[in-house]
Amino acid sequence: MVEPDVDNLVSRIETDGYAILEDAIDPALIDVLLDDLARIEAKLGTKPGDNSFEGEQTTRVYNLLRHGGAWLDLPVHPVVLPVAESVLGGEILVSTVSSIAIAPGETPQPIHADDQVLPLARPHVPTVCNSMWALTDFTEANGATRIVPGSHMRDHAPDFGSQYDSIAAEMTRGSILIWTGSLWHAGGANDTDQIRIGIAMNYCAGWIRQQENQQLGIPPDVMAGFSPKLRELCGLGIYRGLIGHVEKDTPAHRLYGDDHNVPHLFDSANP
What we know:
Radius of gyration: 19 Å
CATH superfamily of the largest domain: q2cbj1_9rhob like domain
CATH topology of the largest domain: Jelly Rolls
Number of helices: 7
Largest sheet: 6 strands, antiparallel
Shape: globular
Strand order of the largest sheet: 1-7-4-9-3-2
Strand content: 15-25%
């Protein structure tokens, strides 16, 4: 397999708003994730959503990191993480890790941008970089993510519920779609008899609030089993040596004894 070119992927995201990384997930890992997702859904009694955004035939499981195991491999993917760090300027956070399983009969999700809730003039510096991991084939017929290429550079967000021309981001099982949070997109309609299963592995800039509150959502004993890098990605580090500190200390050092990974601004002379 050809080694993915991170710089090329980042360039495509900057230009088009998205890129597809093919054959990015080990087939064995896909099987493990699918089996564990089925177990978690059964344990939680997960039901489809009840609105047009979450979907009435779409099942979602949030906060997958709390379940440990193979889910912990996703945020530190050797290509996806560097791409997200480059898009967002480094020192990023995990925003959410959740499953999105679109069942037969689902209708199209409204076109939206993932950073649409932020009160920032558009276009703006990237705040969110998201990825969709294809655990099954993604086709136009079964609900592949629909995208509006180049829309991340527009000076406005889409009107929720309005119709826009879009294309299906078709990809084979094991591929990963990566896009910037300003890109207009949506889940597609599933007109087949097969379920489309993907994992949303989303990041945000270190100065943006995470979609999921992982500091409360992940039990301390589970977080203790995370690598220092993953704890940092989950919000237990500090941004640029200052934002998020606890009395000049990182939460990860205070709670788990992790080493400081970046110089702290308090260690330098006051401006």
